[in-house]
Amino acid sequence: MAKVSADEGRAFLVDRLRAVAGGDKAALRQVYDRTSAKLFGICLRILGNREEAEDVLQDVYLTVWNRADSFDPGRASPITWMATIARNRAIDRLRQIGPRAHDKSVDDAVDIADANPDALELLDRADESRRLAECLGELDDRTRAAIATAFFGGLTYDELARKAEVPLGTMKSVIRRGLLKLKGCLSQ
Prior knowledge:
Helices cover 72% and strands 0% of the residues. The chain contains eight helices and no strands. The protein starts with 5 loop residues before the first helix and ends with a helix.
């Protein structure tokens, strides 16, 4: 089996998302097959409950189906676009259900996603992780920590502001400026 580069993997997902925008159900299935493990992991990490994560994942793919025409490959990679949808949907669900005891520890989420990713996924992860780490390294410590906690830890802006003991507007500004710097760095 020939190796597929990260660029070819992105190109495949871009093509499939365009087909989804045209109403192609088979293309949605292909997108789901390539991305569901990662997106489920995001949902589960934020929600800490398998059933809630499964419900949110379904909502994520409904959103992909309904909004595929709004995906712009010039602004984000397909997996980044879908991961953002998953993160936002999971945080929305977390707000809806409110505080409660979780059935499982958040650490258990690591074991849920497929432990044997395909070669394309490994290449894509390695390339994106390397580039993201380089660009995050260019940010100041406060901004880097805020962005990492928001996007990888699932905290809301309000939770981040309280944790850092700064006004909500300040936290939003810190993250917004940081994301603009990251976008500039990642687009190079």
